[in-house]
Write a structure and sequence with these properties.
Elements: H1 11-15, H2 51-60, H3 64-70, H4 87-96, H5 105-117, H6 119-133, H7 138-146, H8 153-168, H9 179-196, H10 201-206, H11 215-235, H12 242-258, H13 270-280, H14 289-300, H15 311-321, H16 324-329, H17 336-353, H18 364-377
Helix pairs in contact: 2-9, 5-12, 6-11, 6-15, 7-14, 8-9, 11-12, 11-13, 15-17
Keywords: Signal
Signal peptide: 1-27
GO molecular function: oxidoreductase activity
Amino acid sequence: MENLSRRKALSLGVALGLVGVANPVHAWASTGSGTGAAAGTGPEWIWDDAADPLMASMLDKGHVPAINTAWASWVNNNDPLPSGLPADFAAYLRQVNRLPSWADPAKLARAADFNRRKDTYLFMLYGLGSGIMSTVIPREAKSVYWSAGGADMQDRAAKTFTFGYDLSELGAFGPTGQFVVTANKTRVVHAAVRHLLPQSPHWRAVADETIPISAADILVTFHSLGTYVYRKLLDWKVPFPAADQEAFLHSWQVAIHLLGVPYEHIPRTWAEAEKQSARVLTPILTPSTEGIALAEELLGLTAQIDLGVTRGFLNEFVRYVLSDEVGDWLGLKRDYASAALVRTAWPAFILFREGLSPVMPGTFYMFDQFVRALAMLFLNKGSSGSTTPITIPTGNRAG
């Protein structure tokens, strides 16, 4: 997977925009993370007091196209802010474009090394697990579908791949890394969507919320990504030392904070994260019209290049990493030969890759090439160039 060492992990999951689902107040009580469970005090009542009014102003004044042009050259964490930004927008970025005081550089470095070492599993889980799981989170699916990016999921995937790519890089949080900048760009995009999406009559017709992407939303999406992957790696018996587990969680803690989630609502341990996930993610998974359409579009993109596998194989791998129930919800046609192959060959693939078995399965190269091809599909629409810049939307999906 050396060719993927700079193109890792989160493309499909993050392609769906890190937009999650707010849940009933009681779901956040007694998780050990948040301090407030009463109405109006939990994370489902928190949006972004710093970024939201700023982006509403930028959009209403027509400044967004100029911002997108100006910040295209703002890439590395230590890059100076570009010229051409509105003064109040530049002032905001100067305030937020830094690591929190509690960030641990050693843990962040170890997390990046872990991502490099386990990129194969991370990509498959983030892409075919988390990415497709997001389509059965109803509010997330509806928000994604009716936002501007929902009209072209391949383009959205290419643009938002940058988040996972930069998070997975060695030195991602350091001066020459790019993730702090990327996270702050993503936070601004979320603020823009909060302003734009409530203006969509299509979204309002199907939404059961008035403002999308609360702190609870982002936390739920974290559980569909980080917490889900953590549990799957353990279930698959991938070697995962305690120090790697702690570092992996810490990188997500910093990432969530950079997206605007208050520190007191971020899970402190994996045990706490799993407890919270069981309360706020698992119970709300269900299909929706928008989610089914998104899943089919995302999976259908694979037909555009040769992945070396059939659509039936892809369907069965999704069923394997999620469940047959999710597969049924999404109408993924069964391929029982592929199902048998996935359920026997993938564990053997892991054992060989991890040096736990001397026997290389005959399917080793098939899986290896499949992961490579799938990664390239969502990297600049299948090209081998650099990742696509994050841009702020100025409208919603037309219909």
